[in-house]
Structure formats: structure tokens, C-alpha cells
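Dear colleague,

Thank you for sharing your sequence with our group. We've completed the structure prediction you requested, and as agreed, I am returning the results in plain text so they can be pasted directly into your records. Please verify that the sequence below matches your submission; if there's any discrepancy, let me know and we will rerun it promptly.
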Amino acid sequence: MDIFGQTFQKTPQTLTARPGVYLYYDREGTVLYVGKAKNLRNRVRQYFSRDDAVGAKTPLLVSQITSIKTIPTDSEFDALLLEANLIRTYLPKYNAAARDDKSPLYIAITLNEKLPRILFARKQALDRSHDKTVFGPFQSGRIARKLMQSVRHIIPYCTQKRRDGKPCFYTHLGLCRPCPSTIHTPELARVYRKNLKRIALLLSGKAARVRSQLEQSMTLCADRMDYEQAGEYKKQLDALRSLLTHTFEPDVYADKATQRITDLSRILHLSSLKRIECIDISTLQGKWSTGSLVVFTDGIPDTDHYRRFRIKATPPRPNDVGMMAEVIKRRFAHWEWPKPDLLIVDGGKPQVATAMHLAKDIPVIGLAKRFEEIVIPKDEGFTVLRLQAASGALQLVEHIRDEAHRFAKRYHTMLRSKYV
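Please find the predicted C-alpha cells below.
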């Protein structure tokens, strides 16, 4: 095998240890596979090591490789973006997910809108709309979301399409600023659009330009003694530097999430658990009652799809089942939201029965608090499972339930502090 005019045995030692992207070619010069690495030398070596698991999994790919091209980058962040662009360009045979579009995720920016949003979308959704600036595909949905969570701490942005004059949930966390829902002046609109254009630059692999812009803005603010705003720009620069030294390796966590989904699918006899939703109620003697909806995609928290509900009904005394019913009705009134493959409710048989009645054709289970029992509908009644603590299925359900409880409690606490 000839690689850059050298025998393969010499190649791993001569390749750089920097982050970057590697492309495998066949004898016709067709790109077989595109991958990224935080250490190009080690990653390429893995494919051709007899003892390495990566090589063992892909013997057919390795047998067809006649040449390799590597493109070093300044950071793994740059490698991640370059990998996505090259996969989109070449659609390599062995980047199978990108070809059949079963799992890759795209990041889209609606720059055509007056106040743009950032969205995650599959290829089918993008094909129905041509008015978005698109980045990807990203081989791992978890990596794409992790990437944008990091970006959001550098440059705040909005994902929701609402103009009701009230700031969105993420405004309170400092992750949506200025919030489009509260923009009433041309100056604020200009600032927001400038933020979105900077994000587009970042996702285009032009982090150096964004860093330069932030440094200039920080200097200008300091010169006019606006030290508070200069401090904000410094925080953004620190977050950007952190992003550029970040490691985007999903394998260990993603493998664990996949195994937990597999365990739960087997127990529930469900073929797909791509999107799981969980609803939780938080109340204190019937006051300031709130509901939360959290979403897990591929076993990973999908925070952009989290929603919160302030309970409108005011029964004479606290009624957990009634409040759960209200939140479920309001959730499924949103036909535009993706349909879940499974709905989890925090509670036992009464909550599960209510959810089954309202969320028709959607599998429902409950997680009872007392013994950490999973309540499953069966025939005309219910069956209760008590799983081992080490069960991946139980760990996943508990993780989802705990996340829903945390999210509901945060909103509940915020309301109490506002009115007490």
C-alpha cells in the first residue's frame, strides 16, 4: 500500500499528532471514508493494527484503502466542522449513516428571518425548506448538540419562534440575549443578527475571525470605560478558547446510552426509542404548581426541546393526577412537536392510566417513587417491574425522571421566589 509515496509501515510515524481529518481513498481515487481525530497519527494507526478493535470492525474498508490524505487543523473543533463539510461533499461509502440519513443531524440557521433561529434538523426536514443556512451532517447527534451547547455559552441565541413579549426560559440562564421575544428596537435587532452571523462564522470554521471580532469589541468597551460590557466580551473569549481546546469524543457516553436504550427497548418490546419524553409535576400544597416536559433523543438529554407549564387549574386541594392530565393535554395540543416513541410519567397506576387515555397510540410507562418500580400497561391492567439497580433500563428511566424533576423544581422555585 502506497501512502503519499511511502510504504504504510512508515506512515504512522510520519503523520502528525495534531488534530485533523483523514480521508481514505480506493484505487479509483474515490473517497471511502472521512473521519476526524484529536491525534491523527494514533487514529490512523488504529485502523491498521492487527490487535486494535477499530481495525477488526472494518476489515472490508481497510482492504480497499490504497491511499490516505490527512488535513491537520488547529483544534478538534475545527476538525469536527471540516469532517461534516467533507462528508456532505463526498458522501463516502463507509460513512453509511450520512448516505442513508438514519442518524446524522444538521444545524440550520434561519438567516432569512428578521430574527433568526438555530435549529437541529434531519435531512428530510431540510429538503422541504431551502431558506436556511445549513451545517453538517454531524455523524453523532450528541456531538452536534454538545457543540451547540458550547457555542451558546459563547454567543447566546434563540431556538424558539415566539413573539409574545415575554423572555424565553433560556434568557433567565443567560443563554438567549437579547431574546427575540423582547426585541422592540432596531438596535437590539441589529445586535441579535450580529450574534447569529458570528455563530455562522464559527460553524464555517472561521473561529479566528470571531475571536478577533470579540477582542476588538472588548478593547473598544474598555477604551470608553464600559468595563461591565468589556467583562462580558472577556467571558465570551474565555468560553471560545475553552471550545477550541475541547474534546468531542462521544464514544464512551454514547455507547452507554445506546446500551441503556437497547435494554429498555427489549423490556418494553418496542422497536424504536429514539425520542423519549417525561412529564413531572412540582407543587407545594397546591400552590405555584408547575409541570415540566423533558426530552431525551438517542438516550441523551435534548435540552432545546424541554418545555415548562404553569398549571392553570386550581382544584380545592392538590390533585397530582388532575395536574398531570392538564400538562399532557397541553403538550399534545402542539401537533407541530415531534411525536415521542415513549412517554414516561412520574407516578404509579393512576398517572399511567390517565396518560394512556390522553396520549393515544403512544406507549406509556410510569416510575413509582416508593420502590423505584416501573409500571407498565398490560392487557386490561398493569404489571409492575422491579429491576436491579444495575439495570441499564432502570438507570435510563431514573435519569430521565430525575431530569424532569430537576427541571420542574427549578421553575417552581422561580415562581415561589417571584411571588413570595
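Summary note from our side: Residues 1-10, 52-57 have pLDDT under 50 and may be disordered.

Kind regards,
the structure core
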